[in-house]
Model the fold of this input.
Amino acid sequence: MRISKSKFMAGVQCLKRLYFQVHDPLPASELDELQRTVIEQGHSVGLQAHKAFPGGVNVANVPDDLQRALETTRTLVTRSDAPAIFEATFQHDGVLVRTDVLQPRGRSGFRLIEVKSSTSVKPHHLHDVAIQRHVLSGADVEVESASLMYLNRNYVFDGERYDVATLFVSETVDPADAVGEAEISDRLKEQFRILNQGRAPDIAPGKHCDDPYRCEFYERCNPGISTDHISLVPGIRAKKLKSLLDAGITSIHQVPETFRLTQRQRRAVDCVKSGKLFVGPELATEIAHLRYPLCFVDFETVFPALPRFAGMAPYDHIPFQWSVHRQEKPGVAVQHFEYLADDDGDPRRAFVESLCRALADAGSILVYNQTFEHLRLDDLARWLPEYRATLESIKAKMWDLLVAIRQNVYHPDFGGSFSLKSVLPAFLPEMSYEGLEVSEGRTAGLVWQQFINPATAQSEKARLRSALLAYCKQDTLALVRLLEILKTCL
Done:
C-alpha cells in the first residue's frame, strides 16, 4: 500500500479521515467552487514562486506517468546542473511526495523548499516539510536544509509585474521547531496500522474536524444535532461543553441554573428554556440616538492571494459591490441604490465615488459587522487618499446592528449564532437566503469573478449580474426590516 503526502497530512489531522480517503471515500462532500478556487489559487502562487529560481526544471512537465517522473527526478538529482528542480518526485517507506522546489547546494546536498499560499508559517506546515525530508532521506537524497516560502503580506504590487524577490518570504525551518524523524516514523506506523484494519477507527468528532481544514467527511461524523443542543450555547468553550456532555447533559433545557456561564450565555439558555424573546432595555436608548437620513449599507469584496491592482498586497480586499437602502425621514418610503463593477478593471475609484454620492448627508449609517466595513474604508482611504476625509466621516456615522443585537437581544431560534443568516430568519422567516442563487459573501466573490470573465457568455453574465444584485440588496433590506421589527419589540 502506498499513500501520498496529502493523505499522510490527512492522517495527521485525523486517522479516520485518512481511512475514509483510502477505503471508503464515498459519500464525501465534493469539492465546491470555493475549494476549487483555493486549489487553483495555490497553483498560481506556486507558479510565481518558480520564477524566483530562473532556469529551474519542472518534473511536472513529464506526462502523467509516475515511473517516468521518478526516473526523471533521479536523473536530475544525480546528473543535472539545473539551479532548481520543481515537483521532484520520490517514494520511500510507502509514501509518495512531490517537492515544490529542490535546490542543489553543492556537495552539502539540497535545500528543500515548500511553497505555501499563506502569509505565515502554520503548525501543520512543519509536518508537511518533515514527511518530505523523511522520504527524501530514505531515497538517499541529502537534505541540507528545509525552508517554507510564503506570501509577504507587506508586499505592495506596482500594478505591472510581480517582484518575486519581495513577493515571497523564505523562512528556514529551525531544527528546534522541526518535527523529528522519530515522530514521523511513529505516525507512519500508526497510519499503516489503521489502514490495514477492517474498519475505520473509532474517533469522536471534535476540533480536529475543522483544524486545519474542514474535513470532507464532516457530515458523516457529525450528524445533525437538535435545535436545543448544548453546543448551540453562544460562544461556549470546548472545556465547558465537555464537562456538560460528560455529565450526560445534551440539551440546553437540562443545563443547571448553578452551571457557570457568561451573562450572554445564561440569557440564551433562559430564552431557549422559556421559548421567549429577550430584548434588553438599553436597546431603546441606542435606537433613539439614530439620526435621519438613515442609510443601510453592505459591501461585497474578494481577496485574492496574488494582488491584482497597484498598491495592493496579498489578500487585500477588492471591493466590487455595494448596496444602500436609504430613508430620508420616518414614515417615508425607503429608496434603494446599488453599485456592481461590471468588468475586470480596477473598481476601487468607481466604488468610492458612487458610494459617497449614495451616502451624502447621511445621518446614521447602519451596517452589520462594522469592523469589516471600517477596514474596507481604511483600505480605500490608503489607496485613494483624496477621499480620506469623506470616508472618515462615513465611518464616524456608522452604527453596528450586530453589536446592538449581540448585547441586547436573543431569540430562541438564533441557534447560538448572531450572524445575519441566523438572526434574519428568526425574526423574518420569509426573508430566508435559501432561495437565492448567491447566499453568502465568499460565494458572491466567486460569482463576481465569473461575471467579469471576458469568456463568460453575455446571457450568463446577465444571469450572474441579477444574482449578485439580488443578494446584496437582500442584505441591506434585511437591516431595514430588522430595525423595524426591533422597534416594535421595545
Remarks:
- DSSP finds 18 helices and 14 strands in the chain.
